[in-house]
Amino acid sequence: MENCIFCKIINQEIPSYKVYEDDKVYAFLDLSQVTKGHTLVVPKQHVADIFEYDEALAADVFARIPKIAKALEKAFPEMEGLNILNNNKELAYQSVFHSHVHLIPRYGKDDDFSIHFGDHSADVSKEDMQAIADAIKEQVN
């Protein structure tokens, strides 16, 4: 894609701190460095988000995640955990519309990164849960 910053990074038109590259993916440090080692894994094929993936692209991209995660763990033995985050569409906080997966090393509870999910289980009946599951199940091909 012509004006895509990640395509320009992949094509070496914009510099990056590359940590991994093969014929399918490119991984580089996120300039924000939410935590030390915060890495983005992007498919070389331009797709806007997860909704544009086919099975082959998903297999190619997500098969590389453990390899890069293990490299982070070896590079930073003080790392205590890792968040894997993928935002899709603007409402879900996607800001660059070339699909990418964040690997965010965690160093402790005070490392300035958190994700909090609210518990809404009391608001949803068993019947509602079954209806939600059925609606999704009908659409899985």
TrEMBL record:
A motif (Histidine triad motif) lies at residues 98-102. Pfam families: HIT (PF01230). InterPro entries: HINT, Histidine_triad_CS, Histidine_triad_HIT, HIT-like, HIT-like_sf. Residues 5-113 form the HIT domain. It comes from the Bacteria. This is HIT family protein.
